[in-house]
Design a protein that fits this description.
single chain; 57% helix
């Protein structure tokens, strides 16, 4: 089976599953995401590294004019760009 046939088969199967009513889906083997789950969940934010970066003055001024947290917004924007590029590969 070539990649095109495999994709067609997968698309067909996904459409078939999407058409099923929710009541027909067996959720019995999925654990409940209750308060205990979230209380015990561990989240580790990405490690941040201080760097020096050269930005156009007007770009930096625009981000700063948006108020506190401008570095976080720049980081978030760069992360989204990175994720889009990674998905394209």
């Amino acid at each position: 089976m070539n990649a095109k046939d495999l994709k067609r088969k997968l698309d067909t199967e996904l459409q078939r599953l999407a058409a099923r009513p929710d009541e027909d889906i067996d959720l019995g083997d999925i654990p409940e995401l209750d308060e205990a789950f979230f209380r015990e969940a561990e989240w580790r934010p990405p490690i941040k590294k201080p760097i020096t970066i050269r930005l156009d003055a007007d770009v930096l001024e625009w981000f700063r004019s948006q108020g506190p947290g401008y570095q976080t917004r720049i980081n978030r924007l760069l992360r989204r760009y990175m994720e889009v590029q990674q998905r394209r590969r």
